[in-house]
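To fix ideas, we now present one chain and its tokenised fold:
***
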Amino acid sequence: MVYSPLAVKQAARALAAGGVIAHPTESVWGLACDPFDVRAVERLLRLKSRPLEKGLILVSGDERDFGALLDNLSAAQLQQLHATWPGPVTWLVPHFGRVPPWVHGAHHSVALRCTDHPFTAALTRAYGGAIVSTSANPAGCQPARHKYQVLRYFGDALDFVGGGATGGRRAPSEIRDLISGGVVRP
């Protein structure tokens, strides 16, 4: 999959400036922002009409960006993560108060995914850490699978839209609970 290094730089600059961007992921387009910028997260949530309580996913191309969130996990739990990362599996992991409430919402866990999408992985490297990434669609609408759908949903309300094509998966990322072992979203 080909992407423009210039687009990666533009997207990373937009994130650093407090922007909300759209980028391709393994299956759908995502909206992203800096997880520690409350204004950016609030703006993203308004664009999606998504309640804060639902929480958001943190995505990176390098699991080391999740740092302390993985410190308290057992060897068996880490092995579960490593069996699916990088890839389209999102894990619910206890956050132990190590992420802001506007990221974890009303939950005791936070959703983490180590992506294998080339653009998104390069973006997190250029940005220097994990980003919030949630499907690019207003609540109740189908997730955008193409750039034109993102533009139809959000027009010029975003600070950057680009990065190539999605990874072509038909289903959104699977979500699994690391503690219970259950599949939350197949």
Notes: The CA atoms of residues 1 and 118 lie 7 Å apart. The first strand starts at residue 21 and ends at 24.
